[in-house]
Q: What sequence folds into this?
């Protein structure tokens, strides 16, 4: 249930109501807004009837949460959530570009790629140390060594980092080396890992699975919020369809569709979303035009040498040029880059 | 084969080569460019060897057309084609918005809707007289009466029109009443109808089928060009996937993917592409951002009364507001609206 | 509405009720069963209230038809329909195998292929004269000449024939030369052609489109029945998905899913459904095992020479061997071959 | 590379060749067949040239493994592999039915369901203790308590068991309580878990992901074999498509398609594959008809009370009846039940 309090309700009254909700065995939620406080109650909603909230003097309205996801739902939380990723706010006025190579291959490669993207305006570095690969014979990432490189480069460039975690057993070590967790498309329904993410308070970039409905993505995010971590950033990266013209089909309408359903920020990955270097720029512009809060772009100092995803990685000069071209689109969307 | 002539080749020399190509039983094509003339030869390419074109003094290069579509291919025609639709050029510097109701329901409804969209900046009117409907019990369109209304409103508003044709038997009557033909998604592989379109010289808006690969769409267009009508405008309108969050999944990456493969103009239909009124504006902006040459938008004077597709039709005020919001995106894309 | 009459209702009483239904502007349907008569009323069902049918002494029950398709629905017609195709009943105790080449290429080829399949037990001949092809440069069929060959071979082998019709303009000539119409997957939503099929009384094999939901297929069939032709045979032939391992994904669960929803017979085309010769035999057996009423199989006297679909066509010896292997599966399913 | 030895090659010669392969840094494989020994060499195949194997007197032929999966490929291993699951061979002459409830809910429920399925002929018990659920608010399984129940019931019924493992951290405890591991559809590309499965020698039932191509499934299996566990059973359970008529689309052609590519046994799960109780029987028959080595069927003592998947679970009497009906299909397929 969503319980909207009157503007004149005091903090003490809100706390008292939360206490009553908890006493019924339900989970109380506190969502202070700019004008009034909204409370939530998760669990068997019929029990709530006993409190006769509708006739409480400080309660404006009580309504059920119809969506199967609760904490993630727009109904629960009408204003957009801003998530901090290593000090960079995502979901606010500025569009955030996260960039870097698919995989961390060496300190040199990571530093050169990182310098290039930061110089061009990227505000978060990406790079994978644990690479989920379809084939067991493909490069699987540098593991711990990769994480160490990422942390060093992060310090040298004074830029926060995002890196993928693929297993519960790695959560701790990734936590020590990076500023935010990425859950890849293939891990979107690794529910144990989602719960582990809920134990952290760091930002989690949750990528949509290749066969995930928008509702599935929101329910996966709900796992993280239900465990206590509100810092989730959703990422559209294309779904699998029948057309081989692109590696995945980038579902940009997911951006307004998610924003209609949820208060969480949404970013777009045009690199995996198309799989073709030449389409990254147009789809980055389109993502900003339809309301995305950020972009996740693969850039490698030399894509022809990349150990993975070279075909979809931008050359540094292409990335710099893209950043310049994005600015007027961000302005048209009423935002800054 | 694509035969690129030297800049100094004369018209007579080009004509002579075309004559030799035809004499072999191949189909010659003449593609004059700004700097040099390109010839094409369609048919069994091995026969062409007999002409020893590579050693001809006026031939710069000879290369095979690798794409399964030939006339439609970018290889054949490196600059973008501009198609005239009732005097309005599509594919050039100005982005063209085609708008109007899904179905023509009455003169009043068509006129009111048409006035609203023209006043807001639409340059072509749309409206269906023959409606392909999944159920035999759904409204099937006004037929000839609808076409007559469309022509009257077109004259009253001095604006060209686009309307759907669903059967070869209707081509003539549609031709008499409208300025351009639309082939709907379900007719994209009605090959007899495609051939009939090839007999016309009017513009044809060819919509991508719900399960059509980009290659299938280009081969469908090839049917029209192969019959002699070069005036084809391709339209991305979403494909069918597993996610019910939107009516179709709008594949905006199809815009750069088509432009990489073909010289034909590409427009986007965000109304069918999403099926949700609220998503039409963001996806219109995104379409322009990624390079679309135009938009096809459903607007009804009162969507709540619409006999079809009301859920995805804009109110006139929403359309007017959208047109204002699109302008800065068009400028960011280096174009005008 | 479905109006079930009491067992003791007379024919005159049924006729009287139908008269009353028609007088309201609804379309009455007469469905005599072995024990009692069922009437139907198509149109705005609310009007029917005026007749107070529930209190009529000869009416046992009145219930709405919930499915969007009415005439096709199982609710309307609880026993399985048997459709005659040139004298061969489809949908009864015997499983019917329809076989022949994809395209009619010559009299020799059609006769040799036809003799082989008839000798092996096929009871209907197939062969296409009008071939819908993705590319305009692919073999498009022999047209009228092909139909003439088909008719000659049909007479020589004393076996009825099935052939595809792709346009309303060809319906008459196909009708003169063949025993049944096939609507191909790409024509499943050619509504004008569906209506034309409804004007005939010959059997129509309606193939599921590559992106058609089962509901879409049933609504397409409804177009034919609504025009007056009850002789529709549905055909599952695979849908388009993301996996290139097979040409289409054969959805065999469509067989029980259709039979749960509709009384029409269902056949399966494992040739298009897989696109791979080696998978035709196992999928034919599976189709029979899950309840299909027949099979549509491509057989060519020499698939390596076939002008279309050679990769999925069986050699005559393979077909003969398959027919022998199918017999015990038909028996296990309680049917004969 | 696949290195086929001559029939007269001795074990010592084979061992010597394997030694030479290992000395190059490649991974040698020993695949003794009934007539001759086949060796494999995994790794950078160009290095192998140094051994000049083609001219070795005991080598009959050397050929590359073209498939991206190596150990799993049919090329490597021409006869069908039989995997033992708790003493029950899967992949041999007898078709194996694995049955039981979706989730273990209580000792009573598991015992009653287990007694029913074993009495009817199931040879392996299934039941989930860790349930991956789309929503965090759905029943997540009994965990360790569920595993204990499963082990007790297994002993009481003297029947081996299969249960799902969802995280590397649970592998050990599942190993202690069950006879085989199931990797669910959502875990098919949990590569860390796949590698952990490779450390075991117990049978692993690997379910195809909802968006997994057959090639993806085979590459996932390759992860397990590459780590040393050859006991993998592949399971087709439907993929996600656009049609809501069934929960998933059961891709039965995957059975012959996998068998053409791989030597591993294949079973089919018609319960998840359709999501509808009424379609389980026809699709079970079809699975056997097209060559499946076994079935995985959900049966609950009372599906209306089931905490998960009740809609697709069979009643015990339905399962008993299905087992009787399957027998003639197994015989038609040349196998026993």
A:
């Amino acid at each position: 249930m969503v319980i909207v309090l009157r503007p004149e309700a005091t903090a003490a009254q809100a706390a008292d109501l939360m206490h009553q909700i908890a006493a019924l065995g339900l989970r109380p939620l506190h969502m202070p807004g700019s004008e009034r406080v909204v409370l939530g109650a998760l669990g068997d909603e019929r029990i709530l009837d006993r409190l006769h909230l509708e006739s409480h003097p400080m309660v404006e309205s009580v309504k059920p949460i119809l969506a199967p996801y609760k904490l993630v739902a727009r109904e629960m939380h009408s204003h957009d959530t801003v998530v901090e990723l290593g000090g960079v706010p995502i979901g606010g006025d500025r569009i955030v570009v996260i960039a870097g190579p698919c995989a961390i291959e060496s300190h040199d490669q990571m530093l050169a790629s990182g310098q290039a993207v930061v110089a061009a305006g990227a505000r978060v570095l990406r790079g994978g140390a644990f690479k989920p690969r379809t084939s067991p014979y493909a490069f699987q990432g540098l593991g711990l060594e990769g994480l160490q490189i990422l942390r060093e480069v992060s310090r040298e460039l004074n830029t926060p980092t995002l890196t993928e975690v693929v297993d519960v057993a790695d959560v701790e070590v990734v936590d020590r080396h990076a500023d935010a967790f990425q859950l890849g498309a293939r891990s979107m329904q690794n529910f144990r890992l989602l719960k582990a993410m809920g134990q952290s308070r760091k930002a989690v970039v949750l990528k949509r699975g290749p066969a995930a409905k928008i509702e599935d993505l929101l329910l996966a995010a709900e796992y993280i919020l239900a465990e206590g971590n509100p810092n989730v950033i959703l990422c559209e990266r294309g779904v699998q369809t029948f057309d081989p013209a692109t590696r995945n089909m980038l579902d940009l309408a997911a951006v307004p569709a998610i924003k209609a359903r949820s208060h969480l920020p949404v970013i777009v990955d045009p690199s995996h979303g198309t799989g073709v270097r030449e389409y990254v720029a147009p789809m980055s512009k389109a993502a900003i035009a339809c309301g995305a809060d950020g972009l996740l772009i693969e850039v490698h100092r030399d894509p022809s040498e990349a150990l993975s995803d070279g075909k979809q990685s931008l050359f540094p000069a292409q990335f710099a040029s893209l950043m310049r071209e994005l600015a007027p689109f961000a302005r048209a969307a009423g935002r800054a880059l």
Notes: The CA atoms of residues 3 and 39 of chain B lie 5 Å apart. Chain B touches chain C through 31 residues (CB under 8 Å). The radius of gyration of chain B is 21 Å.
